[in-house]
Amino acid sequence: MTSLVDAACDPITLFAGLSFQAEARASECLIAGDPFRRPTRAKDLPFIPLDRPLGPDRLASNSALVLHRLLFNAYETDLLFLPAARDAAEPDWDSFDAFYGPQSIACAQAARPRLEHLAFAGLEAEIDLAGKWSPALTLAYFQDFLAREQAASAEPEENDPLLASLLSAEDPQAVARHYLVQMAPDFLSEASAMARLSPGAYGPLQSALFNVLIDEYGAAVHAAKHSSLFETVMASVGLDPRPHAYWQFYQPGSLALVNYFHCLAANKGHFFRYLGALFYTEASLVNVTGRQSRALRRIFGKAIDTRYFDEHHHIDRHHSRMVLTRLIEPAIAAYGSRAIAGILRGFEELRLLQAAADRDLAAQINWAGQLRRNDPRVAGLIAAWRAGSGPGETFREVSDERSTTHIHPDDRLLLLETGSMDFFPLAGVNLALKAGDHLFIPQGRLHGSIVTAPECLYHQPILSPDVARTLA
Prior knowledge:
Blueprint: H1 4-7, H2 11-16, H3 62-76, H4 93-100, H5 102-120, H6 135-152, H7 161-167, H8 172-187, H9 192-195, H10 204-216, H11 226-236, H12 252-266, H13 271-300, H14 307-368, H15 376-386, E1 392-398, E2 402-406, E3 411-418, E4 420-426, E5 429-434, E6 438-441, E7 447-451, E8 455-463, H16 465-469
Antiparallel strand pairs: 1-8, 2-7, 3-6, 3-8, 4-5, 4-7
Helix pairs in contact: 3-5, 3-12, 6-13, 6-14, 7-14, 8-11, 8-12, 10-14, 11-14, 12-14, 13-14
């Protein structure tokens, strides 16, 4: 951890202290119409180890949530968002100026290298690329992956554990909206990371990559731009399509996937790793988007506009072949072992990160989709805790005090002694709790709350892993 002496000059702490990342206010469960407002829970930084990188096993943690929020914001100070136009009022230029001001840019640039190291250096130890990877073996490996993904696109939606969790939920539409929200940090500004690789002296590789970029941007037709199509998806199911309206409900895995592409594209020495990651995502989307479209139509019926997924299911068959034949094959032919090592690493690191993010999201949906107040199994644990059998924490909060969404490192119960609060386990889902109500919050699960009474006294008994498993 950083010491108290170091904290004042630590670049991560300085960046986290900027006003646009301050704690969420009472009105900010959703942050509508202000793409520059991003509460991060910077107050948790003193409890986050800043001396060792995150591994995939720590993705569902408060450390990952806070660090990836900060890194995401550091990257987005380098992207253009314009303030929302308002009727009979000036746009919010104060927020715009704070987000893009010299202090913000300088702090983001200073913090970014350390945040990138903490976010992604832990992946390296998880990937074993031992052995001699010849050009022929490498290309055969990728061709086999592409063939398997294309074949899997016809499999039932239930074969995908994440989609199965949506379809089996008590309220499939509620969890499916949260699922769509997890795509928003990427899809509402889609291909922004790829665009970082456009400047420079062009050769055949950059030209081929720009061909993909043009397709992502709808060949300059705004209505055909992939991010425009995703806005339509969100609006069709009652979600706000404006950037970062659901900022508080992005899970760490969702942010990590976007950040990984920005990291590779912003650091030009990772160009070959970017090609490997790009091939993984283009090839796997051939499979994933077809099943996503079918699952979402089963859940929402004719109400949902699935053109975003249908377009990807179509065009990524072309893009995956293009990335393989016009980017990866020429890169290996021109740059040999250097290209092979980078491409394989990017491919495997993104595959590992995607699997961890999917597990995290499925676990969130399985918990929140079945969450009930006053589970009878919890009552006995609360009685034992009151009798002094275990640790816990007690909080006294006042009306409108909001807890910015966060994650606990342990399994806990929530018990309201007095007052009332609204509890948020998913985007758009609110559990109204009153005195005497209780529920179970497993470690690793994103949640937030706001006090709705003049005062609220509540407890969080901490469970041992063995006890928590009885509630899973």
